[in-house]
Amino acid sequence: MPIEQQPPLDALVAACHWIGTKGWCPATGGNMSVRLSGQHCLITESGHDKGSISAEHFLTVNLQSGEVDGGRIPSAETGLHTLVYSLFPTVGAILHTHSVNATVLSRVEKSNAVILEGYEMQKSLGGQRSHLDRVIIPIFDNSQDIPALASRVADSHATVPLQYGFLVRGHGLYCWGRDVKEARRHLEGLEFLFQCELQLRLLEAK
Amino acid sequence: MPIEQQPPLDALVAACHWIGTKGWCPATGGNMSVRLSGQHCLITESGHDKGSISAEHFLTVNLQSGEVDGGRIPSAETGLHTLVYSLFPTVGAILHTHSVNATVLSRVEKSNAVILEGYEMQKSLGGQRSHLDRVIIPIFDNSQDIPALASRVADSHATVPLQYGFLVRGHGLYCWGRDVKEARRHLEGLEFLFQCELQLRLLEAK
Amino acid sequence: MPIEQQPPLDALVAACHWIGTKGWCPATGGNMSVRLSGQHCLITESGHDKGSISAEHFLTVNLQSGEVDGGRIPSAETGLHTLVYSLFPTVGAILHTHSVNATVLSRVEKSNAVILEGYEMQKSLGGQRSHLDRVIIPIFDNSQDIPALASRVADSHATVPLQYGFLVRGHGLYCWGRDVKEARRHLEGLEFLFQCELQLRLLEAK
Amino acid sequence: MPIEQQPPLDALVAACHWIGTKGWCPATGGNMSVRLSGQHCLITESGHDKGSISAEHFLTVNLQSGEVDGGRIPSAETGLHTLVYSLFPTVGAILHTHSVNATVLSRVEKSNAVILEGYEMQKSLGGQRSHLDRVIIPIFDNSQDIPALASRVADSHATVPLQYGFLVRGHGLYCWGRDVKEARRHLEGLEFLFQCELQLRLLEAK
Q1: CA distance C3 to C23
Q2: Which residues pair with B97 in a beta bridge?
Q3: Which of A100, B46, C85, D118 has its CA 20 to 30 A from that of B97?
Q4: Predicted pLDDT at B47
């Protein structure tokens, strides 16, 4: 079935399996979600290998309360998903991955953003039209206090709007799209750009 | 079926799937074509993942007008495909890919060409007989103005003839062959040589 | 069948196949074991490719004598497995792999430990709660005299307790868990962290 | 069927497919052979992709004349295979591959040998018992004149006997074993060691 016609959960399960194949969520790390409505999203339950996850390992989360209906509490990082859904009513899917490239680049870059420039593949990000423009991916210092981290992300967005995603230092990438298909393209494009950027820095001893 | 006996579109679809497996066209990037006659080629429609593309996602383009018969307009980069077909009547297939190695090498090398020398695998390119010869792969600065880029490629070719392909800086590789089979061999050989060249530069801190 | 419900040998065979796919045990290297009881474990017989190993290629070893019941003698490195089972009554599975990253990192790091700090993925290791903590993975110089190496490991453990695993310099990683599932997660997490650490050292020219 | 019981050609075809999966023979490069008797070997015909080669793409070569019975002439590099079979009556299979690591390491190392030392995986090579020993893999400058190259290899062997294989600079690896199974293990072990050695040189800026 073409991805556009898949039910959202099926599309998200397929995205998890693809992410597993890519090695971007080793050792049960990461979490993925899809919006069901203005009030709810589905999100991966903690502790499952993304490459072999199935439909019963997703929880329905209330976007206002951040809780699973019925009172079960999802993983702490759910708070970053619900933040992004509340900031962007048009976002339909969020992918949070732990790749080597995202982990290392977010540590090597000591400032608060990775700036991507001069790459044709910037155009894989919705709305980008030229390699001459600059794509800014913010980096936030990691924290185990997710509400505090979410608050820093929200504050930063109020000044410089987020676009496609952000990095958490030494941790990984959050990225999103209108639907699972666009979120996958953004993830694949950003991972490509991160790998290029690391290679370029190595070769140019920057 | 042996690749030599495949209908051209079948061979091109198989090449796209293989390129998808290699990771040389992430996030729906790249485009691939095969010549049908002196007047027409088939080319990938924009926006499809190459690893899972199927026969209905190809457009028939008029090599003179650069348009799809009936008036649909294919992706802008079609102009580089039609240029190559017009420069080389014997070219039967063109592969345009976006690999990390092609992207990075074309930025690290600041001159207008990558020169490959001393590699046995240069002989994977049609007509090359010795590692002692030099293979010159031109690099053109990227542009979103494809007619202007095509014009620079044509001008360069008038002075120093193109042979197997060229790089667009920070963008990717265009390469070709008599048929899909030879274009695949050239792509695989060039990608191998680009990876060797990057590794060698890293190790020799060139 | 969910991995938690697999018989231990089935889970271990599946782990070997997965390790083969990852390329962490090339050329028949490495050995893997699972505890059967307080007295016995099953361990891979030497000389088999881990990626295609099957259930008949495992030996039942007596944890006290280190011998196969009936007198057959398993590979020399069995002594490190039996040591770990005797040090940790709760350990249920041990994976010993030979990856490029573990081999190289254990040589590049000249001290007696790799210290991992600042990585979210440290939390893939049982009991770790924050990227701000330090995970210490000891490195022991390699030896062909396994009883002597086991004695050095035991002495070190008496001073600084082992937690998840240790490296043998220029050789590979030993890691473990309560069961095969946790040992796999520890292996995948440590391999990820080793790859990040190598990349980071390259980029920071440490 | 266990590899030990496979007919030699079946084992060699399986080895070619495995090498294709590893990416060690891109763009139809490389050639592989197996001894049939004191007088003949089977060798891959030039120009086929090793990952999808089948039994009809092998030629029977006379080890004395270097010719195919009936007068067909196999690829020029057959002369290096027949040399190795004549130098070592116990060699049953030869694998000649073109990997990035073998190509780059043989260029980065300017002397006439790669010396491997301190790696447990040296024991993947028949007869090696300790990481403290040194494994010497000679490097010969590449040449398109195969009889001349074969003569240099034979002269070198007369002084310092070859053991497992040799590198041709900027070209690739020749390695061998008693049978296809041992040749595969030697190839996998040497490729692992070459990758470690390149990583180590990068990290130690040697």
Answers
A1: 22
A2: B173
A3: A100
A4: 87
Contact C8, C34 (CB under 8 A): yes
ipTM: 0.95
Residue of A nearest to B54 (CA): A2
What's the rounded mean pLDDT across residues D134-147?
97
CB < 8 Å from D in window 22-41 of C: 26-29
Compute φ and ψ for C160, nearest 5 degrees.
-120, 105
Among D54, D103, D139, D173, pick the best mutation site for testing chain B contact (most B Cβ within 10 A).
Answer: D103
Say whether pLDDT at B1 is over 70. no
DSSP alpha helix (H) spans, chain D: 8-22, 78-87, 100-108, 146-159, 180-203
* Element containing residue C93 per DSSP (H, E): strand C93-97
CB count within 10 Å of CB D110 equals 8
Both tokens assigned to D176: 């061998």
Give the span between the Cα atoms of A122 and A129, in whole angstroms.
Answer: 8
Determine whether the annotation assigns residue D157 to a binding site.
Answer: no
Which tokens sit at B159?
């002075």
Over 80: is that where the pLDDT of C184 sits? yes
How far are the Cα atoms of A2, A83, A149, B15, D49 from residue A42, in angstroms, in the given order? 21, 14, 21, 37, 45
C-alpha dihedral, B36 to B37 to B38 to B40, nearest 10°: -40
Determine the angle formed by the axes of helices A180-203 and A8-22, rounding to 10 degrees.
Answer: 20
CA dihedral sign of residues C160, C42, D130, D100: negative
Which tokens go with A168? Answer: 């958490």
How far is the C-alpha of A192 from the C-alpha of B99, rounded, in Å? 9
The binding site of B comprises 96, 98
Q: Which other chains touch chain C, taking contact as 3+ CB pairs less than 8 Å apart? A: A, D
- Structural domains of chain B sorted by starting position, each given as residue range(s) with its CATH number in brackets: 3-205 (3.40.225.10)
pLDDT tens for C103-145 read 999 999 999 999 999 999 999 999 999 999 999 999 999 999 9
